[in-house]
Amino acid sequence: MPLLPRPRSVRARCTLIVALFTMSVLVVLGATLDLAIRYRIQSGAFRQAERVASQWSPVARGGMVPRPIPANPPVDLIQVVDVHHRVIDASGEASATVPLSRLRPPPDARVQPYRECSPNDRCILLHAIRLTPAPDAGVVYAGIPEPDLLATHQLEYALAAGIVLVTGIAAWTAWLLVGRALRPVEAIRTQISQITVSDLSLRVPEPQGNDEISRLATTANQTLSQLEGAVEQLRQFASTTSHELRTPIAALRTHLEEALLYPDDVDAQDALRSSLTTAGRLEAIVNDLLLLARLRATDPLPPEKIDLGELVATEVSAQSSAAPISVPITFHAPAGLKIRGSRMQLIRVLDNLLANALRHTESTVEVSVEPADAGVAVTVTDDGPGIPPTHRERVFERFVRLDDGRRRDPGGSGLGLAISRDIAHNHHGTLTVEDSPRGARFVLWLPLISGGPATAHQEAGT
User: Fold this and answer.
1) pTM greater than 0.90
2) Neighbours of 343 (CB within 10 A)
3) CATH code of the domain covering residue 131
4) pLDDT digits (tens, 9 = 90+) for 126-159
């Protein structure tokens, strides 16, 4: 369990981090400064004491020391002490009986600094100089009372007060700056809290500049725009789906009610056949809707390498055999045009395009597979009435069926081309309607991974 609770606010956490960091740095700097000041003051006092002791040392050796010894402020404590620690000469500020120190420099190091402290008095910083290396040589002591900054903790108190003051200023500054920096974030949060599913038109305010918060607001608005478009598309899809399902459900209900209400006037077999036909259209719509949902909501299957020419040849052969009316299908494809994708999904696209062409053609259908723009294009062309340029994008919308399509295939779901385009997009390709001298021409383009120059020409018919 942490000793201190973690602040919930980012502003408070940042302020706390700044305060702790500032205090840590200042404590280190303060300790360093305290030691430096103490050392400088102490070394200065020792130098002054050494200078005064050096002045009186030759005088004491010659026995010409005056009484009392004149003081050299700030070094007021001067004594000449014999080997038995008796004070021989002293300044007016120094004791005439008690030596400043009982420590004697050794003969090989005649100059020594000392710090003498008594229980009831202030410490003294002094320098001792042994007059001669002889065993009975006297000692000259010159000392200065320890300065107030060294004798008390005033320096530490002053540094601590400065550390607290600077830390407080740094914390307050961080609090203000972080608050100002996070103000747009709070505005974004407030605006987002007001956005609901029923109203996605609101946008968050975008602050000026190109910093992280500005880019966050821009991304949030882009996401909201995409979400609004997706929700609106979902609403339109739900409305269109409900409308499309209402018609076959109403027809199914009508057939069944007529069979129940008028058993003598309605042929039961005809009513059942009509109901089965309507149920089949409902099943086709539901299946296509499920396929659309899977295409957009699930992860794609692992792609496999597919020879598109062979796949088209197989599907052309299958459609030719299954066509209820004998319609020749002519196709040509180079060998070795390979792509990566889902075989089952691509079969669904080819089946949709071939079935659509066979349904609208008058005499023949042409299918070609050719390299195009670093990819491969599958072209399916019929010689039917064609698609007006104004409707070439509408045919890929859900449940959109032109008048000719409704007439030729009244039981269709209107989702085949929409599913085909979604599959093409999932394969990083395109599906479009292009100009044709006669009829409709659908072009499926997919990215190519390899190609070959050889070309096979074939013709299939029933």
Assistant:
1) no
2) 13
3) 3.30.450
4) 999 999 999 889 999 999 998 888 888 888 999 9
